[in-house]
Amino acid sequence: MTLFHYHSTKPSETLNPNKLSCCNLTLGRKLLTEMDTIIGCVTDLLPEKAPLDNPKEVIKSVQTRLKNTNSEEHIRAISDAVQVARNHQKLLKPHINLINQKIVQFLNSQRIVYVRLACQSAGELFRTMRCTDRPLFDNIVTGLMNRTADKNQNIRIDANWALDKMVISIPPLYSITSIANCSQHKNPAIKIAKLRLMHCITVIADPIKILSGTTGLKKARQLILKTCVATIEDPNAEIRFLSKKLMQLLKSTCYESFCSSLVQDISWDELKIAEKLSGN
Prior knowledge:
Layout: H1 17-42, H2 55-67, H3 71-85, H4 89-92, H5 96-107, H6 112-128, H7 136-147, H8 153-169, H9 172-180, H10 188-205, H11 207-212, H12 218-231, H13 237-253, H14 255-265, H15 268-276
Helix pairs in contact: 1-8, 1-10, 2-3, 3-6, 5-6, 5-7, 6-8, 7-8, 8-10, 9-10, 9-12, 10-13, 12-13, 13-14
């Protein structure tokens, strides 16, 4: 069976793993630089400050403020928590779930400033704390994915920036699983964000490792392939393009492993879709 010949890449061609490692690091740095530049052009609600002299006292203040019923106190608490996290991760770790609960609430808020602060805080805490405690981690990712389709441009930028921070900072399987949980969304912007992020994760994690399923990445491979096949006939041209682009990345990495993975990971009906599109 011939699969996915929509590019001219020969089946025998594979990517050099050593080159991939360099590309992965370069891509990660490029993502951070580009997204940090974009967000800086909007309004950075969480500017860098000098390291705190009294982080323990600030953490106590954060706890007190979060218990307050005044939302303005919650804003201050989250901002202070992010500042603590930049230099004192161990001190903040016992309190991170309480902070993440408030971030989830702010992501669901109707006020733009709350949502933007939640997006930027989530991105910073992905980078510094790297907390993947469920269900809060999944709730934050879902909230951010939803906000990639927000009508407010600044919120869309903030949400995508935070998700890029997640992709670079969080282990691939956690990121892929949470992103895949948003599979029920029909909004094109969310589908585009999902495919874009999956492509980035695949490159950063190394396509060869994804295909081989090493280091616990078999489930990630399954979710990636199922997402691609589910969107490869989407009415939206950009979604179809991103889906095929990701499939082509895997195919060109190692054709034999790619075909084997398709047979293992997707249903017969899905496989027929793949075969039908093999000439595109």
